[in-house]
Structures are given as C-alpha cells and as structure tokens.
Amino acid sequence: MSNTLNRRFFLAGATALAGSAVLAGSTVLASEVATAGPARAIGSSAPLQSQPSLVYGPTPGIAKLDANENPYGPSTGALKAISEAAARSAYYVGESVRRLKAMIAERHDLTPEHIGLSAGSSGVLTYLAVAASKTGKILGPDLFWDTTAQAAVRQGGELQRLPRTEDLHIDLDAMYAAIDDSISLIHITNPNNPTGLVLDASALIEFCIKASKKATVLIDEAYNELTEKPEFNSMVPLIKQGHDVVVARTFSKIYGMAGMRVGYMIASPERLELANRFGLGDYAMNQAGVAAAIASYNDETFLSYSKSRIVEAREMIVATARASGLRPLPSETNFVFIDLANRNAEAFREKMAGRSVLIRGIYRDYTQWSRVSMGLMQDVEKYVAALPAVLDELPV
Questions:
Q1: Among 75, 84, 76, 122, which Cα is nearest to 287's?
Q2: Where do the domains of the chain lie?
C-alpha cells in the first residue's frame, strides 16, 4: 500500500511541491514534481517577472534512462531535513558538516579527519587526480568513468590506460605489471562504470595491498551499496590498516540525491590534505544537501526499498535483452552494459530517443556497447517495449 506525501522545497521566496510515495510507513519515492507560481519580491505583493514553469527532473512523457540516478529518492526523511535546512541557508555549513563526517567515520571506525566532503564525489575525485598528476601519471583501465582523471589531463596531467580486454573486466595482474616509478595514482572504479562489473573482492584486496606500496590506489565505490555484498566489496578497511588506499563514495546513487551534490572521500588525513589543496573543502557544501545526507545515511528501510526496485528493473532489462539475442554484462549497479551484436550504439540511442527513451550512446571506441540506467518502472517498461522494434530497424 502507498500513501501520498507532499514534499516541500523552500527556495528564495518560492515554494515548489513534490510528490513522494511511502511504503510500509517508511521513506520511499521522489519522482513526480509540481511547480509553484511566480515568486513575489520581499515586501511587495507584485509577482516577479513571469517565468516558464520549471520541471525538476525528466520531462513528462520521457523515459530518462541515460544517467545513473535513483528516481526513488530522496527519502522522505531527507526531504524533511532539506526543508528545515533550507530555511537556514543564509548561513554557511558548519556543525552539520562535522556531524556528517562523524557519522561516516564512526561506521568505519575511523576519525572525522579521515573524511573529506565535496559537491558529489566528482569533487574529491578531481582534487585527488589533479594533486597526483603533479608528481606522476594516473593509471586506469581502458574503460572506466574517467571524467575526473580527464580533468587532471586538461591541466597538464597524463592518463595511462591498460590495454582493452576481451571480456571487459579489469585485469589486475596487467595493472600491477604496469606500475612503475612514473605512476603516482592508480584509479579503479568498482563496480566499474559503464560495464557494471564487480572485481573479486579478495583479488582486489591483494592488489591494493601490494600496489599501494608503489603508488596511491584510488577505489571509486559510487555503486558499492548496490552490490550484493557491499561491506565485503569495499576497500575501506585497508585505510584503517594504514595502506595508501583512498575510497570515494557518493549520495548520488542509492541515496537518490544526485541533484543535491554530496559525496565524500575516505583516506588518510595526509592524502586528504593533499587533495584539498586543489579544492574548496567544506566551503563547497550546502546546508540542504548535507542535512539530507545526514537524514539518509542510516535509513536502511529506504535503501533496501530502492535497491529492490533497482534490481527488479535491472532483471527486466537483462531478460529482455537476452530474449532479443543481445548479451548484457552481469551488473551489480543501477545500469546495464549491453552488447548490441555489431549494431552501432549511437544509432541505437537515436532510435530509442525517437521513441522518447533516453539512454547513453558510444563510450570511446566501444561502438557496439550500449548503457541503459534504471529508472521508474514505467520508464523501464517503455525501454523494454521499444527494444525489439528498434533492433529490427538497425542493420547488424
């Protein structure tokens, strides 16, 4: 059973309402948004200049499956915290940041000095990449989420990629063999994006321990909470053991807060200090986002619900892809990477867009691989319904 709960967003002089479903009296859904009328100037009864209505999120009628978002969030607890914090947005963050750091540190039996926050994990990932690129090259797989590493490249750094593998897995042995004195940072995304593949945890632990003796090892765990065994798959315990390992996490994925921009890095205080030389630190954070993160962090009911819906959608897409003669890679994320059997992924994307389904196109030179993210069930069903017809329209 579900009820309807009004969500309140307090903006400067305006209020926007958003619908949120509640499952079993807990925190669940943030997917449909209503907009408010024009704002009024303080001390005046006259409306400001009329503006077109804003749409917060996907355009109605469009299945948005092109970004790895969780449309079931933020949780209702987070929404309440957002409205309360927004009323105090005249002030910079302070105590709320300290509280969030303390919560994260406590879970991992570390100190708050081991936690660095940023506007999404992209911030801390970029800071570290730029810092590391000043003393050496960044080593990464052939295919991974390289946006933050590329930010360092644009500032004069160098990214060294491993050779492409046939099964698209990260070859840890080849990666270790590639580490020499020129490498300052090893970047691994686990589960990987866009492949969705998870590395064997035992093998990754072994790799991190020996590789971190030669260079800093960065593990981007943006999708860790979506894996079957999140704690087992995480490399955070290696940080407490003193290894030169850094882990990045985010509230953008399972927590459904991509638009609130809250991420964090777990590392030694020395590594965080180095990264923060190239960033703004806590100054980049916002009251509403931090408050939402605090309210969401231990909300196991919401996380469990979101994960179950994401997995349900993922299984639908995998089953349909296989039934259509395609090869989806096994995924433990909120997206699936699908081999289109020699069809062009960009042409496929355009055909799906013509049917109001948004997905990703070609990644680098992986021309026949297509990534689709999980969305609301009706959007996933729209993708599933369109897939066979679109495949028939494309040459193999």
A1: 84
A2: 2-87, 95-296, 301-393
